[in-house]
Amino acid sequence: MNRDLPGGLDAMVRDLLAWFAARARPLPWRRDYEPYRVWLSEIMLQQTQMDRAVGYFERFTARFPDVASLAAASEEEVLKLWEGLGYYSRAKNLLAAARLVAARHGGRVPDDPEALRALPGVGPYTAGAVASIAFGRDVPAVDANVERVFARLFDLDLPPREPATAAFIRKTAAQMIPPGKARELNQALMELGALVCLPKKPRCSECPLAGRCEALRLDLVFERPVPAKAAAYIPLEVATGLLVRQGRVFVQKRPATGVWAGLWEFPGGTVESGETPEQAVVREFMEETGLRVAVTGRLAVVRHGYTRYRVALHCFSLRDADGEAPQPALHAAQEGRWAALPDLDGLAFPAGHRKLIDRLGRDIPFPGPALP
User: Fold this and answer.
1) What is the pLDDT of residues 56-66, one digit of tens each?
2) CATH numeric code, 234-359
3) 288 counts as catalytic
4) Hey, what's the torsion of the CAs at 278, 280, 282, 288, to 10 degrees?
5) So where are the chain's domains?
6) Active site residue: 42, 147, 214, 284, which one?
7) pTM for this prediction
8) In the chain, % of residues over pLDDT 70
9) CATH 1.10.340.30 fits 9-223, yes or no
10) Which phi and psi angles does 312 have, rounded to 5°?
11) Is 288 exposed, middle or buried (0-12, 13-18, 19+ CB in 10 A)?
12) Quick check: helix, strand or coil at residue 299?
């Protein structure tokens, strides 16, 4: 590992800032660097690609243009606008943080990194990004793009999250900031990683720092950054079912804590060892709603992934097995309702269930007569 800062660090920073001034993308939160918009963008960009985040950002700020409007919102409305971005804890933390900012900071996003860190969902990177980009505070903001740039620039031969490597990157990022230029420098480093110093197809010929890159000089660009040990994916078989009465399907709202808290779903759960998916959905319906149901058909197998899981969601049409058709109990939910097909568009669902809904009435028949 080359831990020594190369000569000409000032020239490196100057070249990087000049490149950013000429190549910066016209992102919506860069129009005026208003703190609320910067903060929102950073929360959305956690675990989300830039192209997808921009559209969500525009829709979100059209509905919630400032801290006060967001703080007054219901969780359900926020989750619905967030639907499709995944990692829903970000949306819940954002709402909780907005309420704290409204109550404790007069509706103004704080400019101090430590005050920002005290907000739900704000870690070291996000605090540094908001403090520097929104307020011009001279603090570093180290994300995965910056880690990759530094791993190549300084030929770091340990994974970026190793304590010694992480400390070096953060210290160096702070040393590089010219007084009063943290907004530009931090964004320039992130932009370089996003547009040029790419993970698999780096565009070294376009890099303003190519002449100072140790990994390029040593022909180690594709070996940097050194990867951390990969986590194994966990396959998961899940069964769910659509029970329709009088043109409406039963949906329930998940508890306020746990996975996908507060989102709506069709009842169901994990296929246990020795079960078929059909047996699992009948069992889960009984456990969650107290209803005896029978499978009338297979609708689809929807595949999706989240965190370390790769899910196969087996979806079935169901009928009541009891002639008296009792109302569902709520053993695994905080709320339930019978919803017409168009009503489902106004509720926030996990990704697998939303994929199923998007196909209902298109290439998957709605089980039973659907109300308009």
Assistant:
1) 999 999 999 99
2) 3.90.79.10
3) no
4) -150
5) 9-223, 234-359
6) 42
7) 0.86
8) 97
9) yes
10) -110, 110
11) buried
12) strand
